[in-house]
Amino acid sequence: MSYPARLIAFATSASLVIGCASAGSALDEAPVDAGVKVDAPTGPTVDAPLTLPIDAPISPPIDAPPACTTTTTNLLTNPAFDMTPLGMGWVQTPIDPLYPIITPDGTLVQSAPNKAWMAGLARANANDSIYQQVTVPAGTTSLVLTGFYEIRTQEFIGVYDRAKIELVQPGGALIQQAFAKDNSHATTAWTPLSFTFSAPHAGATVRLRLSTASDSTDSTSFFFDSLALTATSCQ
Q: Which domains does the chain have, with CATH numbers?
């Protein structure tokens, strides 16, 4: 069959149009891959600025105060009563001047040859005493009395004869008592004594005084030897 030329031309033209339309639809509907990643532009890495640590200020060490040197001193002159002349350093007030307190007589000594023999006489108002005045060093932190005593008595019942050791002011006023015994405390041997005063009395002038008081019957003897009044100081 033969067709008119215009019809052929139209058909061909229409096919081209339809083909173009179909091709355009296929392009428009092509799927986009969501997994495709777009890289960011690359460039040189810039390091963060380096921050140097700031050291804490160094404080010089504070030195502790130097430890002190502990010093002990026996403040008594002739503490064992053995120096010459007899009684050196002590002021004695005996019951009878014929019988000095510091003597080699009587019971065996704790340290030869002398000791202090107090009381021992049965007389009314029989009182005696012995003392030594000392100055306690400044800086003293401790003041301690030590020594030995012995008590021999003829008393049987009751308390009649007494002895004491005291720290007193130069005028005689009592500071503190360190020792107190009577005839009921009789011993058979030398016995140690020790007493720490409640205050060191640093820098003070004081007296260490021993005294006894006896009645008129049945005597009691109080013996003392090897005394020490020790001051401990920190220098």
A: 70-234 (2.60.120.260)
